[in-house]
Amino acid sequence: MAENPSNSPTPESSTATTLPPESSPHAIPPAPQFSNTGLVQKARNLLIVLVAVVLGAALFLGMQTPTGSANLASLAAAATPYEVALTNQKPTFLEFYANWCTSCQAMAADLAELKADYGDRVNFVMLNVDNSKWLPELLEYRVDGIPHFVYLDASGEAIANVIGEQPQTMIAENLDALIAAAPLPHLQTRGRTSSVEAGALTPQNDDPRSHGSQVIAN
């Protein structure tokens, strides 16, 4: 019996194979998958770098800026010696201070400006209370809190003692009066002080911290 030609396999149908979709030359590759973890890590690293740069700049600027203590040291170095001030026939603005005194540090910039304005007519004298050399003066002017300011006339006589932080304008007006040999306009003022241990200066039993800022007119 003759075979039916339609049922006979053809060469093409016997050899053809189907390629998987992923290996097809015309298949579209899948979209890449991105993770947020890498972006977050990069942002964190950038933030750390920026913070480090800011802190470094702040530290550098802080080292370049003079501290209050350094200002006090420079003022003291440029001050008129106490012995000279008593004999050069000029009025004197005397400050008892210490490098650790925060009130003294707070006023350092103002006093530097006052010295620039009045230094040719007024002696600016600074005595460090931590220096035992000035013990007689500490006792003479009854220093128990600093800053402690003493206004002296051209003959070296004390006119008034002013204790505590003082506004620059008030000191300037007092200096104007001191130069003119007129009464000081600002005596009844009170300012913040740092206490000086009175036990090292005088046999008194009272606590120096009980003393407030005050003005003593002579």
Summarize the structure.
The protein has helices at 11-15, 36-64, 68-78, 82-85, 102-118, 135-140, 168-179; strands spanning 92-97, 123-128, 145-146, 148-152, 158-163, 194-195, 215-217. It has 218 residues and is α+β, with helices and mostly antiparallel strands.
Report the sheet with the most strands, covering strand number, pairing sense and barrel closure.
5 strands, mixed
The amount of helix comes to 25-40%
Low-confidence stretches: 63-67, 198-217
Query: Residue-averaged pLDDT, rounded?
Result: 78
Rg for CA atoms: 42 Å
Which series of helices and strands comes N to C? HHHHEHEHEEEHEE
Q: Kindly report the spatial arrangement of strands forming the biggest sheet.
A: 2-1-4-5-7
What separation lies between the terminal Cα atoms?
Answer: 151 Å
Q: How many strands appear in the DSSP assignment?
A: 7
Shape verdict: elongated
Q: What class, by secondary structure content?
A: alpha+beta
- What percent strand? 5-15%
Number of helices: 7
